[in-house]
Amino acid sequence: NVDKVVIQNDGTVTAYNYNGGATLTGTPTAPTAAPGTTGNQIATLDYVLANSGATSGSYTPGVTLLFNTTSATVKTATWTKVGNIVTVMVNFSVTPTAQNVNTNFSITLPISRTTSIPRALGSGTVINSDASRKAYPVSIYSENNTTARIDFLPVSFLNGFAGCSAIIQYSVLD
Fold first, then answer.
1. Between 91 and 6, where is the model more confident?
2. pTM
3. What distances in angstroms separate CA 45 from CA 27, 29, 42, 54, 92, one per listed residue?
4. 132-145 pLDDT, tens per residue?
5. Which sign, positive or negative, has the C-alpha torsion 107, 113, 117, 123?
6. Which has the closest alpha carbon to 67: 150, 146, 124, 164?
């Protein structure tokens, strides 16, 4: 409810004693503010998309074999950054040297973190390449500000693990 509305010659509308109960219907439109505009005005979808800092791409991470690994190959790696949050999706194959032994390797991150404080960064699955197709969980930790360590415990394997995937998510500020 509004007690009084004043419309100026320049198109400015002022509502007095507005109680905040307005409902927009249909597809309301508005002018898009200039990039970098701050304040309490309403942002259009175009403004939000242009100023969100969202970026994405694919990359070829460096791979370092760490423990109980004879090979690790990244098949695909894609990333998306929205604000300060980076999400990485990695598909890889890995061949451990022994079963029932913690197995790990590291990959480089597409965008560095500002700190080298260790953090849990994600999870994933490794799937046995043999007929059993047995799946094992993967844990992902930061090694430093530029790499992520992928860990898993292979209980059994014959031909390594081919259908492996991991999702890594981290803040560039953390």
1. 91
2. 0.67
3. 12, 10, 10, 14, 36
4. 777 888 999 998 99
5. negative
6. 150
Question: Measured between alpha carbons, how far is 170 from 173 in angstroms, rounded to an integer?
Answer: 9
DSSP per position, 39-87:
SSSPPPHHHHHHHS--EEEE----EEEEESEEEEEEEEEEEEEETTEEE
Give dist(CA 51, CA 113) in Å, integer. Answer: 21
What phi and psi values does residue 150 have, to the nearest 5 degrees? -105, 120
Tell me the per-residue pLDDT of 71-128, one tens digit each, with 9 for 90 and over.
999 999 999 998 889 999 999 888 888 888 999 999 999 999 998 888 999 888 887 7
Q: CA 121, CA 128: separation in Å to the nearest integer?
A: 23
- Report which residue type is found at 94: V
- Extract the tokens encoding 70: 């004879």
- Lookup: tokens for 110: 């597409």
What CA–CA distances, in Å, run from 159 to 91, 127, 132, 150? 17, 11, 11, 19
Please report, as a single letter, which amino acid is at residue 135.
Answer: A
- Rounded to whole angstroms, how far apart are CA atoms 6 and 12? 8
What single DSSP character describes residue 128?
Answer: B
How high does pLDDT run on average in the chain? 84
8-62 per-position pLDDT tens digit: 888 787 777 666 666 777 787 888 888 777 888 887 777 776 666 678 999 999 9
